[in-house]
Amino acid sequence: MTRAPSPRATRSPSASPKLQAYKAKRDPAKTPEPMGGSTAKEGALPSFVIQEHHARALHWDFRLEHDGVLVSWALPKGLPMDPSTNHLAVHVEDHPLEYGTFEGDIPKGEYGAGSVSIWDQGTYDTEKWRSGEIIVVLHGQRAQGRYVLFQTDDSKWMIHRMDPAPKNFEAMPDTIKPMLAEAGALPASERGWAYEFKWDGVRAMVYVDGGRVRALTRNELSLTTTFPELRDIGLHLGSRSAILDGEIVALDKDGRPNFGTLSKRLHVTSKTVIEQLTRSTPASFFAFDLLYLEGRSLLRLPYDERRRLLESLTLNGETFATPPSITNTAGSKVLRIAQERGLEGVVIKRRNAPYSPGQRNGDWIKVKNFRTQEVVIGGWTEGNGEREGSLGALLLGVQADDGLVYVGKVGTGFSAATRKELLALLAPLARKTSPFATPLTRAETTLAHFVRPQIVGEVRFAEWTHDNHLRQPSWRGLRTDKSAKEVVREP
Ligand code: MN
To answer: Could you tell me which residues come within 8 angstroms of residue 89 by beta carbon, excluding any fewer than 6 positions away?
Structure first.
């Protein structure tokens, strides 16, 4: 199909053959982007621009004025600030000089559809300009210093910072272990403490770099593909690199987190099923702490300061939010609100305390409205009557010094679908002997189908009995974010 040439394109005084590829991709009647015509100012240093482009995939367009055009690359992760990491730079067609001031929306259906805004602009010095290797010194607001662009393969180039990282720049850590809360009681006075509601979901550390998101559980299992919703956070933060601590939750129709609903999404690996579940059972990320922001570690800052920076990110979207931090209110009142709303409890945080990765040092205290316990499934028994042959109850254990200790069985809290799913998970783990280090009753032993103790779940329960069994346990869901070795009796 051929398009009639547009009047603006043919009239353009810039007949530069360098812009042919640019013009071939765009119809000036349909896109607000400039079509060329300007020439460079004599004598001045050449200009550069970096445009943040929210297209199908977020990227940053890096353009250097050279020989009457903007020589251009698309940087999927933006300009590197850290000299130890190279970023990919995809060489794209030369753009007209006027593109350097372009900001706006490219309509749906057109090439590069999405929104364009200027991330930084300035001038640059050229140290080297050869085919396949360019060294420049950028003089911008955000982009400053010596960079090399080198070609690795066709349109594939890399961009590397040759100067040391900007002053006080700290590289983003690969992982930070989450800080943990001690089980305890409300402090005597609310002075010096902040209260947050305890969200019943899966703890997650979310790493955002160059608009890309990576999420890890407490024991560093990846949640990135399990919860595609998390990508929205990257689009929101754009070029701001950040590490967020928070909880992935599935909200019921009253806005209450439901762990059972969320846990259904945890063990899914099929892309198609994940997509279906993202629509039927959407999850949200509740960010409650900020540990790194744009080249700076925030771990040493007090809670109040980290919280202020977190709130400055305005994380409130369809799939992410910043839940409240409550100060100057009696803890008993906050706990009562949590009870009335059916929330799991409250977490109380010392306002002047730094973030202590992986530690449970009393600077964070949790007070729960109901007790929960993680458990390892060591076997199962069949149901009676209608449930004969299918799952009736699960035999549960927790790790202790002498191995997996039996703590009782749970037979309630499952839907028919959950019973089926659990049985399918347990069948391949069948073994003849009991995995428990402690003896079961003769009746339990006779009826049990034992399994290799690998699957972790969570129950809600009333209390521990004197012989270390769970009283009135009810099934809450699987915990694929925990390994069977870590499951111990909670204090
Ligand atoms: Mn672009």
So the answer is: 62, 73, 74, 75, 149, 156, 157, 158, 159
